[in-house]
Amino acid sequence: MPIVRELIVDQFGVHLTKYSERLVVSRKGQKLQQVPLLHLESVLIASPGVSLSSSAISACCERGIPIHFLSPIGEPVAALYSAGLSGTVLTRRGQVAAYDDGRGILLAIAMAQGKIRNQAGLLRYAARNRKDKEPDTAARLTDLAGQVEDHSLELARLADKATPQPEDDADDDSPLDALRSQILSAEGRAAKYYWEGIGLLLDQKHGWPGRRGRGAQDPVNACLNYGYGVLYGQVERALVLAGLDPYAGFLHADRPGKPSMVLDLIEEFRPLAVDRTVVAVFNRNMPIAQGQDGLLDDDSRRTVAEAVLRRLGADAPYEDKRISLGAVIQSQARRVAAYLRRERETYEPYVMKL
To answer: What value, to the nearest 5°, has the Cα angle with vertex 40 and ends 45 and 118?
Structure first.
């Protein structure tokens, strides 16, 4: 029986249950897939009409295996975790306190810088690969990478002005609320150059209209949005396992039902885990199809999900070792938690050397 770390359940009408030490996917009594629980790290439910037995849910929760539910456009709908994972009081108290004592500003800036530097790194990596065969494109990509990274320097100047306050000396008014718009503005201006660069990496036949978010009808943006949904589940799992509240963020403003902390930490990893992967899917001419409603068909959703999960399972440099990109996300979540508990003086975003 093969080792499966990420189980994707994306067929209408199937049933997921536990038998012995395995999860079993079946339809009308016929077994379609069996997955040992021993190596399983998460379950992704990516189709309507899937039923789960209580024994399957209990087995996953007892072993710390989250079950994520994804809509057809890649929007996270729900997740199931062990109730015991919420018992991390010190970390959550630190997370709430940091919003008002200045550390939240530095964390928000660090995460935005991580995103920008990884965006610039991806464009430079693509430029190197095109240096000989497409020198004009390579030169333009290098120029765009520089313009993207300029905004990281702008954020560094903002960070220099921000000073964390002592634990018992926080102001009543959050300084983060006053600076958030400046951080997001710098990030947005960097994104303009970044997505222009991504457009240069795609064949014109794919009809790339520029970056579009939720509800995009073109295939590239539909795949990006779905890929972000897959990554979202991995980041949320890392935060919960680190004892953090997925809804108490810093870079993204609070709003009922908005998982701001997930949206914060995911920024560092969007270019590395999803953007690069989706560009590769199209440049390798992997089959992607949409229905009349603009949604990716079942096979295309599985293609994107499997590609993103493979990328997360691939080794990445981290300090002086190589671990999977998924393990990097978990390590970064633990570093966030340690910073918020004041066990680390700073938080350094993950920037991959490509």
So the answer is: 75
Tokens of 26: 């079946």
Tell me the residue type at 322. Answer: R
Q: Give the separation between CA 340 and CA 104, rounded to whole angstroms.
A: 9
Task: Match 């849910």 to its residue by tokens.
Answer: 57
Q: Which residues lie below 8 Å from residue 69, measured CB to CB, with a gap of 6+?
A: 45, 76, 77, 78, 79
Distances (CA, A) of 339 to 47, 80, 103, 331, 335: 38, 27, 9, 12, 6
Task: Identify any residues that bridge with 225 across adjacent strands, giving them in sequence order.
Answer: none
What mean pLDDT comes out for the span 60-64?
89
Tokens (6 digits) for 102 = 């200045």
Residue pointed to by tokens 């240069």: 200
Using CA atoms, how far residue 300 sits from 14, 104, 189, 209, 232, in Å, is 19, 39, 31, 20, 18
Short-list 41, 65, 48, CA closest to 11: 48
**What pLDDT score does 3 carry?**
77
Q: What per-residue confidence (pLDDT) applies to 72?
A: 87
Short-list 149, 249, 176, CA closest to 141: 149
pLDDT of res. 163 = 66
Beta strand segments in the chain, E: 6-9, 15-19, 22-27, 30-36, 42-45, 51-52, 67-70, 76-80, 315-318, 321-324
Residues 6 or more apart from 165 whose CB is under 8 A from it?
101, 102, 171
- Residue that wins the pLDDT comparison between 163 and 206: 206
Q: Please work out, in degrees rounded to the nearest 5, the angle formed at the alpha carbon of residue 60 by the alpha carbons of 57 and 61.
A: 85
In sequence order, the 6+-apart residues with CB closer than 8 A to the CB of 109 are 155, 156, 158, 159, 162, 183
pLDDT of 112 reads 97
* CA-CA-CA-CA dihedral for 298, 304, 307, 310, to nearest 10: -80
Q: Which is more confidently placed, 87 or 272?
A: 272
The confidence score (pLDDT) of residue 168 equals 56
* The pLDDT value given to residue 5: 86
Residue 344 has pLDDT above 90, yes or no: yes
Q: Are 176 and 104 a contacting pair, CB within 8 Å?
A: yes
The answer, yes or no, to whether residue 150 has pLDDT greater than 70, is: yes
